[in-house]
């Protein structure tokens, strides 16, 4: 089994280049299904979820040409299939975007329920509510989602919860529907805006992405285009946290500072130094960190996907802080692993109380999900002695070259296959 072996105690120093955003790329790739021309996408992160999704598209009949590690041309002109029951589809969350994209293209789609990180129930009722409002019939049986429509007609849809997946999925289904669709209480995450920008470049008419009301006016046809995925907010945030945790000094390049504001604000509150440039950010850790309280919220709030790495950092502060997880009801499973390193964390429902000032000691840890994995790695970087992190498959879903990027910053991390 593959594992990371980490010798803790070395501050991170140097520069790191951030990859394209996982959650944006996972929306853009299925969006190419709607195009009748070639779509060239650059800055696609080379991660497991993305490669899995590209393979799913190939199985659907989409021609892909990989120009280099991070650039792919998608040609969906001859796609004929609207059903994808492959096991790979079950293994990732973002496969739910096949619903909106295939429904938009064929007015029919059949796929299994999606997978993804095990962090709570993760229903898709708001996606379904949206498709039904557009006139589709939805059947859920034996773990399979079967949706069909005679016609897709624009409608007004109020989301009961702010959902990234439902917002993007409804946009995908609505871009070629008849008339106007209005999504109210829409998610405002950078990747929602990225998918809307991409669709607009293909000829769609989407207004308001990035606000909580999105208006989609249906068009007949979408064409090819060239696009570049935005930088990954969560990967950047992970390196920001790692830099502060190790008391390092890291220049994080290829980022959009605006997307990192909620993270910068919390790190500044702890006492770290942050220097912003146009498309990079320098993060400098300090000897003493103040305790803080964090609450995860939809964008522009503090992202739930950085909650786990942040918890490790909060173990190193002076005093007691809290994390309130308001998005997913079961995202504290990794706490047991941190406790094995000496962390003092008490979880009560959606709140984790973190008593800082305890030194962490190396241990063998299991990456229980993607961001828990990132948290385990950061914990290993600051712990005394050796830490082993297993179950790397989760980490590989979302971090491009984590081990070599950290090594280039001076971290003592290696991968073992035994
Ligand atoms: C592939 C992808 O982009 N994954 C991201 C996406 O996941 P995902 O799209 O699954 O997350 P959502 O934004 O949809 O979920 C937000 C909240 O709404 C709830 N909900 C969602 C849909 C629904 O139909 N009904 C419902 O109740 C969820 O259980 C959760 O409590 O956004 C999350 C929140 O930023 C991130 O953590 C994930 O990294
Ligand atoms: C929860 C995450 O991913 P997914 O939605 O793909 O499971 C994540 O990226 O932290």
Automatic annotation (TrEMBL):
Chief localization: cytoplasm
Enzyme Commission (EC) number: 2.5.1.7
Organism: Alkalibaculum sporogenes
UniProt keyword terms in alphabetical order: Cell cycle, Cell division, Cell shape, Cell wall biogenesis/degradation, Cytoplasm, Peptidoglycan synthesis, Pyruvate, Transferase
Alphabetical list of InterPro entries matching this protein: Enolpyruvate_Tfrase_dom (IPR001986), Enolpyruvate_Tfrase_sf (IPR036968), MurA_subfamily (IPR050068), RNA3'P_cycl/enolpyr_Trfase_a/b (IPR013792), UDP_GlcNAc_COvinyl_MurA (IPR005750)
Active-site feature positions: 117
Record's protein name: UDP-N-acetylglucosamine 1-carboxyvinyltransferase
Enzyme kind, highest EC tier: transferase
């Amino acid at each position: 089994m593959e594992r990371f072996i980490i010798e803790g105690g070395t501050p991170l120093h140097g520069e790191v280049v951030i990859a394209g955003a996982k959650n944006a790329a996972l929306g853009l790739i299925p969006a190419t299904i709607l195009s009748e021309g070639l779509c060239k996408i650059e800055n696609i992160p080379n991660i497991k979820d993305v490669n899995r999704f590209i393979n799913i598209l190939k199985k659907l009949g989409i021609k892909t040409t990989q120009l280099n590690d991070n650039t792919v041309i998608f040609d969906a002109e001859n796609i004929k299939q609207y059903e994808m029951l492959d096991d790979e589809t079950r293994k990732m969350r973002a496969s739910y975007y096949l619903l909106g994209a295939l429904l938009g293209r064929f007015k029919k789609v059949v796929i299994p329920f999606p997978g993804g990180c095990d962090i709570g129930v993760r229903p898709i009722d708001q996606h379904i509510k949206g498709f039904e409002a557009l006139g589709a019939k939805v059947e859920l049986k034996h773990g399979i989602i079967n949706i069909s429509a005679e016609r897709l007609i624009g409608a007004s849809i109020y989301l009961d919860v702010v959902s990234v997946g439902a917002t993007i999925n409804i946009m995908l289904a609505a871009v070629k529907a008849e008339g106007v669709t209005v999504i109210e209480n829409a998610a405002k995450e950078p990747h929602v805006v990225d998918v809307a920008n991409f669709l607009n470049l293909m000829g769609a008419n989407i207004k308001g992405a990035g606000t909580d009301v999105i208006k989609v006016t249906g068009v007949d046809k979408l064409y090819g285009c060239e696009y570049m995925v935005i930088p990954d907010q969560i990967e950047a945030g992970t390196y920001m946290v790692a830099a502060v945790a190790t008391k390092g000094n890291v220049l994080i390049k290829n980022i959009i500072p605006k997307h990192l504001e909620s993270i910068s604000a919390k790190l500044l509150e702890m006492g770290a130094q942050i220097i912003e440039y146009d498309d990079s950010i320098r993060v400098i850790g300090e000897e003493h960190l103040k305790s803080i309280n964090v609450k995860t919220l939809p964008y522009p709030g503090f992202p739930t996907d950085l909650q786990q790495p942040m918890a490790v950092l909060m173990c190193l502060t002076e005093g007691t802080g809290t994390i309130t997880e308001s998005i997913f009801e079961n995202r504290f499973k990794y706490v047991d692993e941190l406790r094995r390193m000496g962390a003092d964390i008490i979880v009560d429902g959606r709140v984790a109380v973190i008593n800082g000032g305890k030194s962490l000691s190396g241990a063998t840890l299991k990456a229980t999900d993607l961001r828990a994995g990132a948290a385990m790695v950061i914990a290993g970087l600051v712990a005394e002695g050796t830490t082993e992190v297993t179950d790397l498959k989760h980490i590989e879903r979302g971090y491009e070259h984590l081990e070599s990027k950290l090594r280039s910053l001076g971290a003592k991390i290696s991968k073992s296959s035994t």
